[in-house]
Amino acid sequence: MAEIIKTSYSALDTFRQCPLKYKFQVVEKIKAPKSKEAVFGDKLHKALQFFHKQSPLSPTLDELLNYIKEIWESEVFGDEQTDMIYFSEAIKILKNYYENYLKIKEKLVVLDTETRFEVLLENPDNKDQKCLLRGIIDRVDKIKDGVEVIDYKTAKRFPAQNDVNNSLQLSLYCIGVLNRWPEFAKYGPENIKLTLYYLKHQETISSKRTEEQLNNVQKQTWEMLKEIEKSEFQPIPSALCDWCGYRRLCPMWRHLYKEQMAIDDEQVKKVVDEFFALKQANSQNNKKINDLKEIIENYLDKEKIERVFGDTGYITRLIQIKAGGYDIKKLEQLIKTLPLPIQEQFQQVKKNDKEYTIIKASVKKIKKEP
C-alpha cells in the first residue's frame, strides 16, 4: 500500500520561513495566539466571503460594514487606540474593495470563495510514496477568456513580477482548480489567470503557468519534503519574528520572556550590558570581550538557547560554515604528477569544511509581545 504524506502549501511555506516554527506548529502541533495581523487578515477574508456568498443579491456596502463590525474582536488588538487603527484600516479596505468591484462585476462571475482543493503528487524517486497537498483558494472567477484564481493579501509589500511568475503557491492553485473543476482543462493553463490581490493597495499582480511549470510542481514539492525530513529545525530570525506566536519557546527569543531570573540569569543580563559597554568604550580590550563571550556561550549552552537579552541590546549565537581551503604543499606535489585528472587531485587535497559558532551583538531595544 502506498504511503501518503499529508501537508499543505501553508505548512511548506512555514518551513521555508522558519524550520523551527514549522516544528512547533506542524510537527508538535503547539497552539499559539494569533498575531494582530493574522486576525486582521482573517476578518477581512471572512467579510469578503460573506460579500460574495450572498445570492442573488450581493450585500450593500452598509451590510458589508455591519458584518465586519459583528465579527470584529477588539480584545485581540490590545489597547483602544491600536484597535481603532486596525478597525479603521479594515473599513477603508472594504469601502475601496466595494467601489472597485462595482466597476468590474459585469465582466465576471464569482464561481466560488474559500474553495478547498487537493493535489496528489507522486514521489518521482519512489512510486510507493505520495503527497496529498491541500489548500484553500480565496476566490475563483469565470472571466471572458477563461478562469481567474484570486488570492487576497493584506501585506504592504508588493512582490516582483518574477517572484509571482515562479510562485509555488500559485502553481499549486492552478493544479487545484483543474482538479476541482476538470472542465476548466479545456481552457488550458495559459487561460487560467493567477492573481494576487493586495487589499491595502487595491492593486493586483497576475501570472500564468505553462504545462512545463505545472509538471515541475511535483519535483519542487518533493524537494521541500526531503528537506523537512532531514531538517534539524533550526530557527531563522527575520522580520517575521515580530508576528510569530512561538517567541516564548524559541531559543532566539526565549530569554527575553524570562519572568523570574535566577542569580546566574541576572548575572548574564549584566554581562550582556557590560559586553556592550566594553565594545563601545575600548575596542582594544579584546581579551575581556572574549572572556565575556565565553561566559555568554556557556550560559547559552546551559539554557539551550541561542539569544540573550540585556537592557542595551541582545546577543545572538549563529552557526557559520568555514569553507575548507587547499594544502599548498600537497597541491604542488600533485601538480607535478600530471597528466592525472586535475579535478580528482584537487578534490583529494581539499580541506574539510568546518562548522563553528559566532557571537553577534545587536544594539537594539526589543519590546516583549504578548
From TrEMBL:
The record ties this protein, via InterPro entries, to: PDDEXK-like_dom_sf, PDDEXK_AddAB-type, Restrct_endonuc-II-like
Instruction: Point out the signal peptide segment.
Output: none
Q: Which residues cross the membrane?
A: none
Question: What Pfam families does the record point to?
Answer: PDDEXK_1
Annotated PD-(D/E)XK endonuclease-like domain ranges read: 7-251
Q: What is this protein called?
A: PD-(D/E)XK endonuclease-like domain-containing protein
- What species is given as this protein's source? Candidatus Portnoybacteria bacterium RBG_13_40_8
